[in-house]
Amino acid sequence: MLRRFLPITAIVLAAGCVQAPAEPEAAALSIPNIEQAWIAEGFESPEGVAATPDGGYFISNVVGEGSVKDGDGYIAHLSPDGVITKRYWAAKLDAPKGMAVLDGALYATDIDNVVMFGVADGKRLGKVRIEGAKFLNDATAWNGAIYVSDSGDAAIYRISDGVAELWLQDERLAGVNGLLGDGDRMLVSTMTTGSLFSVTAEGELTEIASGME
Predict the structure, then answer these.
(1) Is residue 163 part of a domain?
(2) Residues 98, 162, 148, CA angle at the centre, nearest 5°?
(3) CA-to-CA distance for 76 and 9, rounded, in angstroms?
(4) Could you give the angle at the alpha carbon of 17 between the alpha carbons of 16 and 20, nearest 5°?
(5) What's the domain count of the chain?
(6) Residue at 157 is within a domain
(7) pLDDT tens, residue by residue, 4-63
């Protein structure tokens, strides 16, 4: 098996380096500078990042193919300054990708399952199998629930109280990938068309950008 050892680069937004433009409309388009904070190395196909309550980070490592159930995947824990404190914080996963923290638990997508761990001790709390899921990818905590994208089926699932349900499925979400709960909306990116959508709690889609790679 070919294993790739890749670095994780932390970046910070130097918003103070950007001068505010005179026109309010232009303010929304200003892009802050990005500066490298640190680099952590030694990961194996790193995929997802989730912040820990203490300011550290969880890093998911696919280790191999993203759709193969081989038990080689794992989640590492990093300190706030990028030092690996526990490489195998959670192990024996298949191909963990997106992660999100909610109510003291870390939720990690793993092909067609979402696996839960206690944030404080790394204890495996269980998993939710999502029937029919083809390629679970990203995850976000939003409105008191966990949402996960299925890149292989243009779908987003909602997990609440350990139960998963299909929340949204739309052909415009072909290759759906990144999810981010952002106030009263969810931001959703797709790989097929390179689109960015704003989604309401009722599942109404509005495309706000396109043509991204």
Answers:
(1) yes
(2) 25
(3) 15
(4) 75
(5) 1
(6) yes
(7) 445 666 554 444 444 444 444 445 678 889 899 899 999 999 999 999 998 999 999 999
